[in-house]
Design the sequence.
């Protein structure tokens, strides 16, 4: 079921689904699974990881 503006309607007791709908509505992008997060602790480590990720990007880069 969809509300006005194309926002999906969800059961009010499903907190995760409600959160997902809000995030996707605000960002206008779907949430995906299988992502990985790595904590980077300093500038050189961050820049090295950033440039490696840019070189390995398949289609686009989201910042």
Sequence:
């Amino acid at each position: 079921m969809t509300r006005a503006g194309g926002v999906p309607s969800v059961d009010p007791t499903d907190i995760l689904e409600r959160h997902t709908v809000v995030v996707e509505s605000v960002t206008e992008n779907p949430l995906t699974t299988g992502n990985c997060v790595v904590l980077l602790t300093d500038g050189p480590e961050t820049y090295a990881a950033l440039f490696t990720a840019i070189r390995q990007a398949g289609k686009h880069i989201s910042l």
User: Anything to note?
Assistant: The CA atoms of residues 53 and 61 lie 9 Å apart. Helices lie at 15-27, 43-56. The radius of gyration is 17 Å. The chain has one domain: 4-56.
